[in-house]
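Journal club prep, shared notes

We agreed each person brings one worked example of a sequence with its structure written out as tokens. Mine is SCO family protein. I'm keeping it raw so we can talk through how to read the token line rather than staring at a rendered picture. Sequence first:
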Amino acid sequence: MALAAASSLSLMACDGPVSSGSSFKGIDITGADYARGFTLTDFHGQARSLADFRGKVVMLYFGFVQCPDVCPTALTRAAAVMQQLGPLATDLQVIFITVDPERDTPDLLREYLASFHPSFLALTGSADQIKAAADEFRVYFKKVPTGSSYTMDHTALSYLFDRQGRIRVVLRHEQTADDYAADIRQLLAMPSA
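Then the structure, token by token:
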């Protein structure tokens, strides 16, 4: 997974997004020509796109329920960020996009996300829809056989969008909840127009 994350970061550098002049702890990709959105289905069966969350800062992550350590760590960190934000947390929407729609049923996703925070939302879709969303975000994922089952290798980055739905920041898995919260606070403080 580290190789996938490193290759994604190198792709970002090649495109040369315009710096916003902010001092983010993560990688400022303001103006990037990718990670612009998605069209998937939530665990209630409702079609969702990035436009549905305008007015909120969005933190988006790709993962899967049976992930042994990376995904639970990312979601535990996201829950810690919600706690750090206090009343501001109502202006943050955490979105988890499954890379394993074969096993991650809507009911399983709802139960899994609720175990971290009641406001977290999971999105799924057909294999083609998930691939299209991953491609838009330059997220790598691959099924890896493990005996009689399989696991998923995937990029472990979190994406932050401002209240207007514009991609602004990519945060690495190694960063702390404090780093995430600092960048989210910065986005929350920006004018909404």
